[in-house]
Amino acid sequence: MSINFNNKYMSSQNRTNIPNSLNEHWMPFTDNKSFKKNPRLITDAKGVYLTNHQGKKMIDASSGLFCNPLGHGRKEITEAVSKQLEKLDYCQPFNQGYGGSFELATRISKKTPEGINRIFYTICGSTAVETAIKISIAYHRAKGDSKRFRFVGRERGYHGMNIGATTVGGMINNVKTFASVLMPGVQHMRHTHLPEHKFVKGQPETGIEMAEDLERIAMNFGGENIAACIVEPIAGSTGTLVPPKGYLKRIREICNKHGILLIFDEVITGWGRTGSAFASQEFNVKPDIITMAKATTNGVVPMGVVAVREDIYDAVCNSSTAPEGTPELFHGYTYSGIPVAVAAALAVQDIFDKEDIFNRAKKMSPYFQDGLHSLKDLKDVVSIRGYGMMGGIEMKMDQKPGKAGFQTFKHCYDAGVNFKNTGDSLIIAPQFICEKKHIDEIIEKLRKGISNYSKSK
Ligand SMILES: Cc1ncc(COP(=O)(O)O)c(C=O)c1O
After folding, report:
1. What are phi and psi of 124, to 5 degrees?
2. CB-side exposure of 167: number of CA atoms within 13 Å?
3. Most exposed of 22, 82, 240, 329 (fewest Cβ within 10 Å)?
4. Of all atoms in ligand 1, which is nearest to the CA of residue 129?
5. Among the atoms of ligand 1, which is closest to the Cα of residue 160?
């Protein structure tokens, strides 16, 4: 159905409903041409539900983009943000500060694995990864080891869209246009998804040997030249690839052997998605650096965070011989830890604690995983993977990669369940506040949408 546009400027009341023109906004990661012919605009969000511009209510099966595990429209967050805006709307974060960002750093460091307790604020996940890359280089240089310039990522990894993050990522469509400007010296391990993992719930038993790719890269390029290895503990954007048992531990061992820093990109897995605060704790493997974003503010204000080992911070800060007032690390953002983001994040921390949110996610996850895997009888579903409160459903390719995924997404949207597809994978990540009835609704509507897609072919 197409929208009826009027030619007047919108009033502030209906701004999010029907815009006058869709032409000027170049939308991110969107098929702009087809969207603008048949737009999907969201006008309201409350709890686990979204409403679109046609007044249709849908259940949010992916927590936005993994951002809103606490549900939409949380009063505690809204109030904290508006109070903060009234008191202090902005202060520059360089050589100045305000109390909230320090308080938040302390609270974050109480939930990160022990010793990973120095907190650098960024604007989003991409800038968190970019920062982790730079901190890795700065750390090695501070220790007098400036030859380490290489990084290792993994196929099907997603780490965001700046040049460094794009380079270490491993999703082909994200890199091929930009090959000429990518960072030098980056190698990729193979992804961990093997044919026998197709309908495995949780961690696959096979595939630990994929970790040896890191050893092989170290052999080929010299482990002593590698600054860091970055992986998502569970690859999220590609449709939930769960690490085989023992895989992350083996990666850690190889990093230790060669003095390579291990970065866990927990932009998705951080803040409870696996049932523990961080996947690092869930899988009992400690990295050196953790990146996070998304759920840090329940998605309402952009914010990224890099948590680093205390001695990494010490090495960088203590190596500086510059005069007082000169930064030890020449890096930061205008919006690093700004008051409004911090206020949202502190309110989120309160809710995490008050509602014992990570345990709530842990308790609900078997029910969710059972529901997800109940869809395996559907004709065009070729693989289902999942862990905790995240899952991926892979659709059978139809002529070209991405076609089946997008068509299925549209049928599901019409059936009243909203999520994101990446290529032919449907990304399912319910909110942690979901009750069993909401999980049931998500699964029923997925069944209907996926079946309608199959019938439409
Ligand atoms: C694991 C991971 N890292 C980094 C990013 C980039 O985050 P952002 O879009 O906030 O820049 C994402 C986004 O989905 C992600 O999933």
Report:
1. -170, -175
2. 17
3. 82
4. 4
5. 6
pLDDT tens digits, 301-313: 999 999 999 999 9
String of DSSP letters for 364-391: HHHHHHHHHHGGGGSTTEEEEEEETTEE
How remote is the CA of residue 161 from the centroid of ligand 1, in Å? 8
Which residue out of 121, 122, 126 has the highest number of ligand 1 atoms within 8 Å of its CB and is therefore the one to mutate? Answer: 126
DSSP code at position 178: G
Q: E strands of 104-171, at which residues?
A: 116-122, 150-154
Q: Which two tokens stand for residue 291?
A: 């990146």
- Residue 6 CA, ligand 1 centroid: distance in Å: 36
* Separation of alpha carbons 453 and 395, rounded Å: 10
Q: Amino acid letter at 426?
A: L
- pLDDT at position 12: 56
The rounded Å distance from CA 10 to ligand 1 centre is 32
Ligand 1 centroid vs 314 CA: distance in angstroms?
A: 27
Distance 133 CA to ligand 1 centre (A): 14
Distant-in-sequence, close-in-space partners of 178: CB < 8 Å, separation ≥ 6 = 163, 166
Tell me the backbone φ, ψ of residue 384, rounded to 5 degrees: -135, 130
In the prediction, which pLDDT does 227 show? 98
Cβ neighbours, 10 Å, residue 195: 7
Determine how β-strand 425-428 pairs with β-strand 390-395. antiparallel
- Taken in order of first residue, the domains within the chain and their CATH numbers are 40-73+356-456 (3.90.1150.10), 76-354 (3.40.640.10)
Ligand 1 neighbours by CB, cut-off 6 Å: 65, 124-126, 129, 158-160, 232, 236-237, 265, 267-268, 293
Across the chain, which has 457 residues, the per-10-residue mean pLDDT values are 48 64 94 93 96 94 97 98 98 95 98 98 98 98 96 97 96 91 97 95 97 98 98 95 98 98 98 98 98 98 98 95 93 98 98 98 98 98 97 97 97 97 96 98 98 96
R_g (Cα) of the chain, nearest Å: 22
Task: Please give the Cα distance from 397 to 394 (Å, whole number).
Answer: 9
242-294 per-position pLDDT tens digit: 999 999 999 999 999 999 999 999 999 999 999 999 999 999 999 999 999 99
Regarding pTM above 0.85, the answer is yes
Q: Are 134 and 331 in contact (CB under 8 A)?
A: yes
Nearest to 72 by CA among 355, 299, 346, 269: 299
> 209 C-alpha to center of ligand 1: Å?
27
